[in-house]
Write a structure and sequence with these properties.
Oligomer: single chain
Number of helices: 1
InterPro entries: LRR_dom_sf (IPR032675)
CATH superfamily: Ribonuclease Inhibitor
Order of helices and strands: EHEEEEEEEE
Low-confidence stretches: 116-123
Radius of gyration: 13 Å
Number of strands: 9
Largest sheet: 6 strands, mixed
CATH topology: Leucine-rich repeat, LRR (right-handed beta-alpha superhelix)
C-alpha cells in the first residue's frame, strides 16, 4: 500500500481507527495520514501501532487528534518512520522519540518543523 489518507475526516473516530489498524496487520504501507480525524487516544503506547510493526511505515500524520499521554514506547513498533507529525498531546514521556532516533528525518510537533533529527539529542 502506498498511502492511506483519511485526513480531516472528523467522523473517523477511534472505533474506525482500531478497525483500520486490524486490517493493516502485517501489510506494507508507506504513508498513513490521520490528521484531524476526531480520534481520542488515552495512553498512546506501543500497542496502538502494534499492527504496523512489519509495515515499513515511512510517514505518519496523527496530529490534530487528542492524545492524553504519549508514552515512551509509543513509536517503538514503527521504527522505520522518516516523517512524524504529532500534536495535541497533554503529557509525554521525554523518551518517546528514542525508538526513532536512527530513522527519523523530519518531526512536526504542533506545527513546529524540526529537521536533521539524527543530530538532535532527546535526553
Amino acid at each position: 500500500i502506498g498511502s492511506l489518507n483519511f485526513a480531516h475526516n472528523i467522523n473517523f473516530k477511534y472505533k474506525n481507527f482500531k478497525t483500520l489498524m486490524g486490517s493493516l496487520n502485517h501489510k506494507p504501507i508507506r504513508s498513513l495520514k490521520l490528521v484531524g480525524c476526531g480520534i481520542v487516544f488515552g495512553e498512546f503506547n506501543a500497542n496502538i501501532l502494534n499492527s504496523l510493526q512489519w509495515s515499513n511505515l515511512q510517514e505518519l500524520f496523527i496530529g490534530d487528534n487528542i492524545i492524553r499521554v504519549l508514552e515512551s514506547d509509543a513509536f517503538s513498533n514503527v521504527s522505520s518512520l522518516k516523517l512524524l507529525y504529532v500534536s495535541n498531546f497533554m503529557q509525554f514521556s521525554p523518551q518517546f522519540l528514542e525508538p526513532l532516533q536512527a530513522s527519523l528525518e523530519e518531526l512536526i510537533i504542533d506545527s513546529t518543523i524540526l529537521h536533521n533529527i539524527a543530530d538532535t539529542k532527546y535526553r
